[in-house]
Design brief:
The chain is mostly beta strands. 2% of the residues lie in helices and 49% in strands. The chain has a 6-stranded antiparallel beta sheet. A 6-stranded antiparallel beta sheet has the order 32-33-34-30-37-38. Strands 21-22-19-25-26 form a 5-stranded antiparallel beta sheet.
Length: 636
């Protein structure tokens, strides 16, 4: 059962015997349940009190913690190997991030001899394999039995380590499955475990591989398929080597058009299906041979996986079978790349705008020729057309036309690019932006058809121009006047429901407009409101006309001396989504059409002037004292 139901319960009154009860249910956790913490909540408890009153109690909840030991992955990283060769065995312990706690005392074992008698670990013991003081890999029974112990991992942590094993010289060719024991650990004070893991060690007398060495290839082109056979045995020769390869199964119509006369002592025959027989290879030797294959012109671009049969041989009088060789053939037709950009927009309606095309040949070795594409300017924006005569470039190619451009006969060396520049005339009336997309670009490489994706760019027209200025220099606690000017650059269409905002407080905290709202400042119904955050809406302008209006500002007394750059939002027009045309736009502006760039101006705040000091008054000079006259002496 995955749901529980309690019915017909009876409890005595509170305080009496039997006023509560406790019972237990044993639950089975699914064996594949992910570790983590799970919250279990009941429904509200209900009851009848006194035979007639229905009551509802609270829900009950608790969390269930599901814990497991870290999971283990193991892999022989470099097999197949020959008898007597070393092989690397890699272990990876992963403690799930959702685990309720740290895993400590992690341990597991691996009986190497149970897989292959004589398979022996080297370099033991290995300490600190999961970090300083964390994890030891030791061996016993002549290092044919591995024991990992004393590991610990936090939730989300991983431990990865490798040990080199020595295969016995007497090992027979074949596959040997090596399986660990369970992984044991303690998580949240509970002993837990996770499942054993296995990998297959392949002891082989031979190795077999294949590779398309020069793909990606153009549909209809050719590729080189290389087969490599290796005799891994140091003493035994390989004879009667054979395999088959069904090319058609990988790509319908793929066929061999160039076969070697002899290869690896054997013979290879066939077209859509290859058959190699009679091969021989001395002990410790390697051989390779190439087959030229031709792709059908109709080949689909993408990856096409080609798989051989098993390779069979005789070694020391015993049959040897090696698993199939495989490789993917990449087919690619898009070797050309075209990009385009309007390099100087936004521009006013009727103004010229440069358009640049860049063509690239992505092929590393071959020249691309007969490059061509078209660009329907009129389809993007009626009245958009090229100025002047045709333009030459890109290896003798020519771009011609006015409202419909056509480029032909381009040529590009391998792994190179070129640019084509043309000037366009924009219409005097139009939408604020328009996406312009070319055709697919086409060409040939080595006589085979190649392509490139269409190129796109958005042409931005500045239908409305917004400017703003502060009058002169202001002082802390003083005033300033902010002047806005809006111009409709479209000479044919009126602009309505014009909207923009200006966050004054974000420029200088405390900077505020005074005397708002102001109405009919830019057409009937227009209004600018706010103090620290200004909103202009409902503007209307006839074609090729403008309006200006002033907003008085109060500079905060706490303003520091300096320059403050103030930038508006972009200017938009048209009714908001769901708004009736002509309705004043004090509502959402996000859904309106952008028509022009933000306006920027700098508010300069200077220190107030200081009066010059006044010199104290100077007293007039004092005449020196006059000595009294001296009477002449009297004769006796």
């Amino acid at each position: 059962r995955q749901g529980l139901s309690l019915t017909k319960g009876v409890l005595a009154a509170f305080g009496d015997a039997g006023d509560s009860c406790t019972f237990y249910v044993t639950l089975t956790i699914p064996s594949d349940q992910a570790t983590g913490t799970y919250t279990n909540i009941t429904q509200n408890i209900t009851a009848i009190v006194g035979g007639e009153i229905s009551i509802v109690g609270h829900k009950a909840s608790d969390t269930l913690e599901v814990a497991a030991a870290p999971s283990l992955v193991k892999v022989f990283t470099n097999d197949p190997v020959a008898p007597g060769d070393p092989v690397t065995l890699e272990f990876t312990l992963v403690h799930a991030a959702e685990s309720p706690g740290e895993a400590t005392g992690i341990t597991f074992t691996d009986d190497l001899a149970a897989a292959l008698t004589g398979l022996t670990a080297t370099g033991l013991p290995m300490n600190d394999v999961c970090g300083p003081g964390n994890g030891t890999l030791a061996g016993s029974t002549e290092d044919t039995f591995l024991t990992f112990s004393n590991g610990s991992l936090l939730p989300g942590e991983t431990c990865n380590f490798s040990v080199v094993l020595q295969t016995p010289d007497s090992a027979a060719f074949g596959d040997y499955t090596n399986t660990t024991g369970t992984v044991d650990a303690v998580v949240s004070e509970m002993k837990v475990n996770s499942n054993p893991v296995s990998d297959v060690l392949t002891i082989a007398g031979m190795a077999f591989s294949k590779e398309f060495i020069d793909d990606p290839v153009i549909p209809g082109g050719t590729a080189t398929l290389r087969f490599t056979i290796e005799n891994l045995s140091p003493t035994l020769d390989a004879t009667s080597i054979a395999f088959t390869d069904n090319l058609d199964a990988a790509l319908s119509g793929l066929s061999a058009t160039g076969l070697p006369a002899s290869s690896c002592g054997g013979t290879i025959l066939g077209t859509n299906s290859l058959s190699f027989t009679g091969g021989s290879l001395a002990a410790g030797q390697t051989c390779s041979f190439d087959v030229t294959v031709t792709l059908p012109v109709s080949a689909d671009p993408g990856m096409h996986n080609n798989v051989t049969s098993n390779l069979s041989a005789q070694m020391g009088g015993n049959p040897v079978v090696i698993g199939p060789a495989s490789n993917s053939l990449e087919v690619k037709s898009e070797w050309l790349e075209l990009t385009k950009s309007f390099t100087d927009d936004p521009v006013a309606p009727g103004a010229p705008v440069p358009l640049q095309f860049i063509l690239t040949n992505l092929h590393p070795t071959e020249t691309a020729s007969a490059i061509a594409f078209t660009d329907d300017l009129e389809a993007a924006l009626s009245g958009l057309e090229a100025i002047g005569s045709s333009v030459s470039g890109c290896g003798g190619g020519t771009l011609s036309g006015t409202g419909f451009l056509s480029f032909n006969d381009g040529s590009l060396a391998a792994n190179s690019f070129c640019t084509i520049n043309v000037t366009l005339k924009t219409p005097v009336a139009g939408v604020s932006s328009s996406i312009n997309t070319t055709s697919q670009v086409t060409g040939t490489i080595g006589g085979l058809a190649v392509t490139g994706s269409p190129a796109s760019d958005t042409l931005e027209l500045e239908i409305l121009n917004l400017t703003k200025t502060f009058d002169g220099v202001s002082v802390p606690g003083g005033t300033s006047t902010l002047t806005f000017t809006i111009t409709n650059l479209d000479t044919a269409k009126a602009a309505s429901d014009i909207v923009f905002t200006d966050d004054l407080d974000a420029v200088l905290p405390g900077l505020a407009a005074t005397g708002l709202p102001l109405t009919n400042v830019c057409g009937a119904g227009s209004i600018i409101t706010g103090t620290g955050f200004l909103t202009f809406s409902g503007g209307n302008l006839a074609p090729n006309s403008s309006c200006s209006f002033n907003v008085p500002l109060q500079i905060p007394a706490s303003a520091a001396v300096g320059s403050y750059i103030n930038t508006t939002s972009g200017i938009l027009s048209g009714p908001a989504t769901g708004q009736a045309a002509g309705r004043p736009a004090s509502d959402t502006v996000a859904s309106r059409l952008p028509q022009g760039n933000p306006a920027t101006a700098t508010l300069t705040v200077s220190a107030p002037p200081v009066d010059p000091p006044v010199d104290p008054p100077v007293d007039p000079p004092v005449d020196p004292p006059v000595d009294p006259p001296v009477d002449p002496p009297v004769d006796p």
